[in-house]
Design a protein that fits this description.
Helix 3 runs parallel beside helix 4. By secondary structure, this protein is of the alpha+beta class. It has one domain: Nucleotidyltransferase, domain 5 (2-Layer Sandwich), CATH 3.30.420. The chain is globular, with a radius of gyration of 14 Å. The chain has a four-stranded mixed β-sheet. The chain is built from four helices and four strands. The longest helix has 19 residues.
């Protein structure tokens, strides 16, 4: 099993648990250059809020988009957009990525900005 298959297996297990909870989820995806976050409705059909380092308003405030500082900015921004959309509690879907580094920084920043998970 290669690295991507292992990650997808972890993601599938996590998403099955979140689906049983019927919770709105904060889903993330990361690449070496960017990090993306979406708040997805409980039924999984609509995106309520999104933020990424590829967006001009976030990218303009950053020197690099693939580091922990960028993840913190995306975490703050997604929390503000989610709260504006009326969502205060989410389940954190880390998409199979290990809870470490940029993933942890995004989650901590979203918690500090007011999201509960």
């Amino acid at each position: 099993m290669d690295k991507k298959q292992s990650r997808m297996k972890r993601a599938l297990k996590l998403r099955c648990k979140i689906k049983k909870l019927s919770a709105t989820r904060l889903s993330i995806h990361k690449t070496s250059q960017h990090i993306y976050a979406q708040v997805i409705s409980a039924d999984g059909t609509t995106t309520l809020a999104s933020a990424s380092t590829a967006q001009a308003e976030i990218r303009s405030t950053l020197k690099n988009t693939g580091n922990i500082n960028a993840a913190v900015e995306v975490g703050r921004f997604i929390a503000l957009k989610a709260i504006a959309a009326g969502v205060s509690e989410v389940a954190f879907d880390r998409s199979g990525f290990k809870y470490h580094g940029r993933v942890k920084a995004l989650a901590d920043a979203a918690r500090e900005a007011g999201l509960k998970f």
